[in-house]
Task: structure prediction
Amino acid sequence: MDNLNKEETGTLGKNSQELHLRMIVKRSVTALMLGGIMLVISIAINFYTTLVEADRLETTQFLNQYRLGSKTLTYAVQAYSVTGNEQYYNDYMRELNEDRNRDIAWEGLKGNDITDAEWSEMEHIAELSDALVPLEEEAMKAAAAGDHELAISYVFGERYEADIAVINSQTDEAIDRILHRLAGKKNVLVVVQVIVELLFLLSFVYVMRQILASNKFAREELLVPIQKVSDQM
Result:
């Protein structure tokens, strides 16, 4: 700035009024450019935050759908094993072949913001669930044959109950971690957006100050002397 002042002073000579006015204009233009950049960044961040929030809501929906599908299958096969009520068998088959909540949720999550580590965890949970399918099939066969004691031993046995507890626990923990990460990502964007908007506001205030300064300069350094000369003439 000092070098600029020296160069402009040498060019303009003793015309310090013109130099002062040029500096005011230059500062105003610079502030306007920075403000414009901050405005564009703010709009971009706001748009991206909207996309992140939509992704978070959709991911929440798919994760809950996956959890619902798993619990529906478990409840239906256990209820059918105990009661032999065909309604529970139909519920199990409808969830498995028609509603397919787990499959739909799994495909939906592929298009969302899920990290490789989170996918590995979800795949491990899916493997545990798939390992229980043979026990569930045997239980339904036994229940259909009227051997409820054998059916109960399959889906209320120590192995099945332990695996179900692990699956439910790991599913809940995985879902909580994913949702917590997505919420944290959104919060970071919100903070950045607030900072950018504050910078934009500061640039706007600075421009207004420069405008007021230029008006004051024009009035006191240009108009008043001209008016005095005019009055003397």
